[in-house]
Amino acid sequence: MICPRCGHDNVPGNDVCESCLLDLAPLDQPAPRDRVQHDLMDRPVRDLKPRRPITLPAAALLHDAVKLMLDEGVGTVLVVDDAGALAGIFSERDLLLRVPDEAARSGDRPLSEYMTPKPETVRPDDPLALALQKMDVGGYRHLPVVAEGKPVGVISVRDLMRHITRMCAE
Fold it and tell me: How many Å apart are CA 19 and CA 2, to the nearest integer?
């Protein structure tokens, strides 16, 4: 980016001008180039109509989480504390990667031992582009939607792909 103060041609991505130390971060905002990018940057997460969150307390047993996921046909359960605030997320990936064979057979250990604590989240008013970026960078298939620290929904990569596909078809 070329510094508007001194004209120095900075390396792309620099947050500060190498010459005059001007803060470039607020000047380097992404700008949409087409209708799809514009939609993703302007449309809030709430427009995807996030699915209701399936929640369990952290003290719930592993087999309860797996049964609930199967019964509800979902790939993730949000784990909440005693006040109902999001404490973690338990997904199919956690089941495959974090649960040793003996624990999987018995399922009598608390979910808190296997969940991913403090997961990335989005708020209902956040732009879809932020949700997409968090999913891409973190490799997540599901993202909790929270308001005031409490889960109010879940969005998935599939939800975003359906939205983008509809935008491209129009």
Answer: 11
